[in-house]
Amino acid sequence: MIRVLAVDHTAGILPFRKKFAALAARPGIDLTVLAPDRWVENYRTVRASSGQEGNFKLLTGGVVWPGYENRAFFRSGLGPAIRNARPDVLHLWEEPFSLLTLQALALAGIWAPRAKSLFFSSDNLSHGFRYAYRPSAFYARVERRAYHRCAGGTAVSSEVVEVLRGKGFSKPLEVIPLGVDLAEYPPQPGSGSGEYGRRATPEEARARFGLEPPVVAFAGRLLHQKGVDTLLRAARTAGQSIAIVGEGPERVPLERLAADLGIGERIRFFPLVPHAEMPALLAAVDVLVLPSRTTPRLKEQFGRVLIEGMAAGCVVVGSSSGAIPEVL
């Protein structure tokens, strides 16, 4: 029996835990997962509680700076999790330069010195240990230490592998893309049910959100880097209704832009829905657009909404930023 301890700051989000259920279902795996008891994801607070999750154990601990992936760290829970799990494998679903990785590797050196450690990376921007955030030199030291301590890593795309190799990581790497549970996206509208109930038909979904077909949509954080302004300018000549689903600092500027373009009556803004409700939302959508732009501080790392749109049967359109072409 191989004892595995996974540390994942997103494991409090129920759909994201399905990968752990799949791992624990494999023979010979004794899996424990540690998640923050409170995390902020896409401007929403997510809470988790310790307990048995089917075939694996979920533990929680308090985190300082919840929502900041790079500088967050556990103030409780991590040390006891390592001592009690006594892992053979420590799988860190964290960037190699994050404080969570530094903290976990340091404590594993005390209580599980024989454990093989792995990291996860979706960073496709920090070539040459140059980061979009500061202090860059500190994060570089943390990442180099992780390279020394870890036996291998996993990456969300081949572009991330290129970045890691370029920074000198020569140990094994495996590309593990993000995924969705297709049981939540049955092939025929209303033909099946998943953990969150029967999927709505397109007609039901459009009635719920007050949309008229054909529906073109964007779903995600409303940031300049997401390129939603490009979608609005394209909508000036396209004529379709546009659903903008998300939250962020660009909400008011985008509303103002839609009014200036004379298309305000065709643009509907909705708050970002929880991950569990994405299948119902996407049932109302005909074309899903991810128009991200590459900037010095951001390049699309994967675009989970792309595969969610594919699973829902949407026509999916994306820009050339980061991993989008590979995902499509």
Describe the structure.
The protein has 328 residues and is an alpha/beta fold. It contains eleven helices and 19 strands. It has helices at residues 18-24, 78-85, 99-111, 136-149, 158-166, 202-209, 228-238, 251-260, 278-282, 304-311, 324-327, and strands at 2-7, 29-36, 38-41, 44-47, 51-53, 56-61, 63-64, 73-74, 89-92, 116-121, 152-155, 173-175, 193-194, 197-198, 215-219, 241-245, 267-270, 287-290, 315-318. It has an eight-stranded mixed β-sheet. Strands 17-16-15-18-19 form a five-stranded parallel β-sheet, sandwiched between helices. A two-stranded antiparallel sheet has the order 3-4. The longest helix has 14 residues, at 136-149. The two termini are 38 Å apart.
Mind sketching the topology for me?
Blueprint: E1 2-7, H1 18-24, E2 29-36, E3 38-41, E4 44-47, E5 51-53, E6 56-61, E7 63-64, E8 73-74, H2 78-85, E9 89-92, H3 99-111, E10 116-121, H4 136-149, E11 152-155, H5 158-166, E12 173-175, E13 193-194, E14 197-198, H6 202-209, E15 215-219, H7 228-238, E16 241-245, H8 251-260, E17 267-270, H9 278-282, E18 287-290, H10 304-311, E19 315-318, H11 324-327
Parallel strand pairs: 1-2, 1-9, 2-6, 9-10, 10-11, 11-12, 15-16, 15-18, 16-17, 18-19
Antiparallel strand pairs: 3-4, 5-6, 7-8, 13-14
Helix pairs in contact: 2-3, 3-4
> In whole angstroms, how far apart are the ends?
38 Å
* Beta-strand residue percentage: 15-25%
Radius of gyration: 21 Å
Overall shape: it is globular
Largest sheet: 8 strands, mixed
Count of strand segments: 19
Per DSSP, the total helix count is 11
Taking pLDDT < 50 over at least 5 consecutive residues as the criterion, the unreliable ranges are 188-197
Helix/sheet category: alpha/beta
- The spatial strand order of the largest sheet comes to 5-6-2-1-9-10-11-12
Average pLDDT level = 91
Fraction of helical residues: 25-40%
SSE series: EHEEEEEEEHEHEHEHEEEHEHEHEHEHEH
